[in-house]
Amino acid sequence: MSRLGVLYLWGVFAFLYLPMAVLLAYSFNESAYGLSWDRLGFEWYWRLLDDPLLIEATLNSVAVAVLSASLATMVGTAGAVGLHLYDFRRAALFRALLMITLMSPEIVMGVSLLVLFLALRVPLGFGSLLLAHLTFCLPFVTVTVLSRLRDFDQRLIDAALDLGASEVQAIVHVVLPLALPAIAAGWLLSFTLSLDDVVVSFFVTGPDFEVLPLRIYSMVRMGVKPEVNALAALLFGVSLGLVVMSQRLLGRRV
Amino acid sequence: MRSPIVEFCAVSKAYEGRTVLTGLDMDVHEGEFLTLLGPSGCGKTTALRLLAGFETPDDGEIRLEGRVIHSLPPEQRPVNTVFQNYALFPHMTVEQNISFGLRMKRIPPAEIRRQVREALDMVRLPDLSSQKPGQLSGGQQQRIALARALINHPRVLLLDESLSALDSRLRKSMQSELKALHRQLGLTFIFVTHDQEEALSMSDRVAIMRDGVIQQIGTPRDIYQTPVNAFVARFIGESNLLEGEVVRKADADHADILLENQVFRLPVSVAVTPGKRVNVLLRPQDLQLEPATLSPSDEGRLYGIIEDRIYKGMTVDTHIRLDSGTLLYASAFFDGRDYQLTPGRRVSVTWAPNLATVLSDDATV
Amino acid sequence: MRPSEGIWWLARGLLPVWLLLFTLIPMMMVLVVSVLTRDETRFIDPVVTLENYQRLLDPVYLRVFIDSVTMAGLSTLACLCLAYPFAYLLSRATQAWRPVLLTLVIVPFWTNSLVRIYAIRSLLAAKGALNSVLLAQGWINEPVRLLYTGWAVGLGLIYVLLPFMILPLYSSFEKLDRRLIEAAADLGAGRWAIFRHVILPLTAPGIVAGCLLVFLPALGLFYVTDILGGAHNLMIGALLKDQFLEARDWPFGSAASLIMILLLFVLLGIYRLTQRLAGSGQMDDV
After folding, report:
1. Phi first, then psi: what are they for C162, rounded to 5°?
2. C80-108 pLDDT, tens per residue?
3. What residue segments make up the domains of chain A, in order of their start?
4. pLDDT along chain A (254 residues), means of 10
5. CATH T-level fold of A52-249
6. Which residues of B279-307 are buried (b: 16+ CB within 10 A; e: fewer)?
7. Which phi and psi (to 5°) does residue B326 adopt?
């Protein structure tokens, strides 16, 4: 690749990572307002642990994320297998629905779900949040698993059936184990999306159930708080870990 | 003698440390159908790509009609390629695909339409102009790819294993179509394949390559009848290659060779020294079989048991396990009579004296 | 294969039913609400009216709409210009580098966007890193006001949404058969002609997908305008948030949302069209 090409690539990467790197640096700067660099330490990180609202919000978020990721993975995988194996006429409509949900901007989703919940008189809180997160996670799992199924050798299923397995058995014993990495990657993706979601959660959560992104939102609006740097650094580290795990699962050597 | 239309002069090419071609010298005659034949990795596709312009040689020169072209980009070379998977533009119709080269030269639209119609007629697909490649069969795509290349009147047409994706019957019919086109157009065709039958049936000349070096280049008949070494012999046609050792040189054209525990006087065209290990080539159709009862132990015959007789319609193949353990294949026209040559029978094998070819492994031409 | 097991059939059917219930039907409900009237206590009074749509034509709201579309459009364009060469270069990287580079692109995609916006804010703030560096170098005498401007919002949008443009473009480039480019060159096309006739049409679906994934969210990411733009730049996203959660004028908010839903469907239609023209028809994503 040409020099210019390499320069451009790393230039864009610098753009993407520089602000985060600066944040990371500041998170270790213990002096007030971060104006001087004489004191470095983990002060702000410890402060995070002293914030009970933050801890509660984090636990809430993780709970919702784990649940929605798990449920989304189950339903999404089943749906992906169904879509892949059976070519019913309604498959086109199904795919269209998937596309729409996938590409919908969060605000449209937030608004429409809010209207739905009002109409069904669903109270806003943990339940509504879970339903909403499930909804936007589903298409991501489905697409991830579906693309792995596309590379799947149909003859393996035929062999299983030939040897006496029922349809369900063939799927459980042959398809799912081989698709497992993609399914796990789908779980990780859902977990992350749920954990990071701001807009949809903003619309559909209730006053009693605080989630991490919204808590961060309040903290950020209240002015510059150095603890947020530490929090940001932590979240970034978590994302990095999750991405590497997910990429490894999908077979890309990272 | 006319000068060749394409010349490779000491061309070398390496990829990521692996040398593919070393000092390749090859002349292509104008108007001939030349096939580059060899196992995968032998450099035949690389040579083609160097001529098309998709790669540049590390060393050496490539000339087209006397002009040095290896520094020209592909779009400026009067050479066109038919790719292995056809590389038809999926987003363009057949007409747009075929006319692509003409559109690049800014030929007026009316003229383009006329030429496209001619091209489609030439490949006998006149009604497909508004279809997209995705809607066509493999054979049709092949012909469109051919039309797309030929419409530009290249000086040389390159075909990179373009028949390998077709099923065998389609392949055979495409082979004769290609040959007919070649005769009709009088263009120089350079064809790359690993299928020796294909090479033999279509080409004016065949160049057999191995590890970046041309082993032999000549007419199919020459290569078949006088392969220069064991590799070429194994590659072209069916063969029996027996291992032997030179005992002594008998005269200018013959040598005594120890073969299957007997000494045979065989014609030699390669340099021989006593003790040298050689291969002796015997074509299956040159072997004569007799029940052993007719000549129980003659000199100059090899003896063994028939393991299998395979009837192939016009011919019958016989597999013979010699006493020494070597397996021989004999092939003959089947005339309905069995001559007591059934599996389990003991037979003797012989051949006409000048039909054995002595080969040494490292000779190349 | 014929569906046989009952439970299995149910499991498979759950996904489409769910999507129908939680995507399509709510959108239709929004449509319904948009033609109803506002009610103080119960949010919605079932009285049909087109007043909400008429209000949208009010110059105040039209201004918001135009500003939003302009801002989102410019950000999308900027993302496209940045991401297109990037995705191309990425697809040409050697096999050894590619997984690493891809991971580096995905990490910001998976990082909390609020956090990333916060990073931009602290960078641009009066006491932030950028100003500190400029002051320290002596290039300016007092801090430059970068925050709470349209530029800050634009930068924030680009920063958050760039990976969303990169990934579908990369997917398009990766699928591009290199031999098509060789074939075009073989037939006499120079670099520009190859781009115009082969690369551009075949990456068009990626371009549209990327624009979809950037333009619509750019209209709706209210926290970007909130954090980086202060109260000055009102965008559709903020408008929707206000109407639904503060002013409690759901019918009006629904009317505004419907505009976005319509935009979504229009863009999806364009995407389908470009896919068909490029000769493909598959679904793809990260």
Report:
1. -55, -45
2. 999 999 999 999 888 888 888 988 998 88
3. 1-41, 52-249
4. 87 91 82 65 79 87 94 90 72 83 90 89 88 92 87 78 76 83 90 91 86 87 78 88 87 67
5. MetI-like fold (1.10.3720)
6. bbbbbbebbebbbbeeeeeeeebbbbebe
7. -70, 145
Ordered by where they begin, the domains of chain C are 58-277 (1.10.3720.10)
Q: Are residues B174 and B254 in the same domain?
A: no
Q: Which residue of C has its CA nearest to B84?
A: C179
* Nearest C-alpha neighbor of A77 from the set A182, A169, A174: A182
Question: And the tokens for C20?
Answer: 């129908």
Distance from CA of C169 to the nearest CA of B (A): 17
User: C-alpha angle with apex C116: C111 to C119, nearest 5 degrees?
Assistant: 140
Please state the domain count of chain B: 2
Q: Given phi > 0 = left and psi -120 to 50 = alpha, else beta, which region is C60?
A: alpha
What is the domain range of residue B254?
234-359
B76 in a structural domain: yes
Q: Could you write out the DSSP letters of every residue in A215-241?
A: HHHHHHHT---HHHHHHHHHHHHHHHH
Contact A138 C18 (CB under 8 A): yes
Dihedral of the alpha carbons of B131, B135, B141, B144, in degrees to the nearest 10:
0
The two structure tokens encoding residue A242: 């999750």
Helix, strand, or coil (residue B279): strand
Cβ–Cβ below 8 Å for A247 and C13:
no
Query: What six digits make up the tokens of B106?
Result: 């800014």
Q: Give chain C positions within 8 Å (CB) of A232.
A: 112, 115, 118-119
**Looking at chain A from residue 165 to 224, which residues have their Cβ under 8 Å from any Cβ of chain C?**
166-168, 171, 189, 192, 195-196, 198-199, 202-203, 213, 216-217, 220-221, 224
Q: What is the dihedral of CA A223, A227, A228, A229, to 10 degrees?
A: 120
Report chain C residues touching chain B, CB-CB < 8 A: 177, 179-180, 182-190, 193, 197-198, 201-202, 277-280
Task: Please tell me the distance from the alpha carbon of residue B144 to that of residue B154, in angstroms, as a whole number.
Answer: 16
Residue C3, chain A, CB below 8 Å: the answer is yes
Most A CBs within 10 A among C17, C86, C118, C284, hence the mutation to make, goes to C118
Pairing relationship of beta strands B33-37 and B188-193 according to DSSP bridges: parallel
Q: Can you give the pTM of this predicted structure? A: 0.81
Q: Let me know: does C202 contact B91? Beta carbons within 8 Å.
A: yes
Burial of C55 (0-12, 13-18, 19+ CB in 10 A): middle
